[in-house]
Amino acid sequence: MTTEPSPPLRVVVVTYSPGDSLPGFLSSLRAATTLPLDVVLADNGSTDGAPERAVAEFPFVRLLPTGGNVGYGAAANAGLADRTSGWALVANPDIEFEPGSVDELLAVAGRWPRAATVGPAIRSPDGVLYPSARDLPSLSTGIGHALLGWIWPANPWTARYRREREAPRERPAGWLSGSCFLVDLEAFHSVGGFDPGYFMYFEDVDLGARLGERGWLQVYAPTAVVQHEGGHATSRDAHRMQRVHHTSALRYLARRHPGPARAPLRAALRAGLGARMLVSYASARVGAGARPQQTADALPRRRRRWRRDTGESGTMSAGQ
Fold first, then answer.
1. 3.90.550.10, 3.40.50.10860, 3.90.1230.10, 3.40.920.10: which CATH number matches 9-231+291-307?
2. From CA 88, how far away is CA 77, in angstroms rounded?
3. Average pLDDT score over the chain
4. 163-188 burial, b for 16+ CB within 10 Å, e for fewer?
5. What is the pTM of this model?
6. What pLDDT, on the 0 to 100 scale, is given for residue 50?
């Protein structure tokens, strides 16, 4: 009896002149799973030649030009358009995977039959744990987080929204960071994928909300760990990215509060977010928002290890 080979795992990477980060992404990805890979670079108009060099160097990588800088969600949609079932990975090019981390995401997905997305723990190069699995922001929580997070990161509204007062554990979340997550393609396409109306920011919040309305779960998997450099593309035009961030927030909140009766609320949100955007132009601290309150030391003590010599998974403590 012959065993059918595993189909390649679709990995969509949205690129926009990713520079030196892309080779590290691809090399670490190869060590993150035993599955064959089908990596699609959904390219939004790179001019640095990095995507073309990656295609030449890595045989499992191919280039998909999107026709221009269409935004993160629209590019990811293009990279997933021809696959309607199974799991796929969507990630930024400045991610680096710990060995076995993608297989760990798949193992977690197998424990949650209603999971639509599964997201890893995301740490920064200096060991800070990014709060990548958050609740959907209520109006009061969102206002408290936006007003106080930059000056009082541990305030109760931010802590509630980002769940930073509890130890990281495998659990459902309202939404997962779009910088890296595993997605069930049947669930993804059932809601129309990412809303292309979000150029950047909040497309992942919106996706989590729409999937949740259909009964799907977003699952945080802190036993799978990746490193995210962050800010690679957004630092090139900080003021524009602040404008995009605040207009995306307004789009999300306005859609959660529709109808003529809530028009005054939407007007107040527009005014408040507009004022915060102007302040963020003058203060990088406001623009950066609330500093994360946990480090990677808070991750579950037993961590997944990948044995390169045998291809079998095992566990070890974080102190080993």
1. 3.90.550.10
2. 12
3. 90
4. bbeeebebeebbbbbbbbbbbbbebb
5. 0.90
6. 97
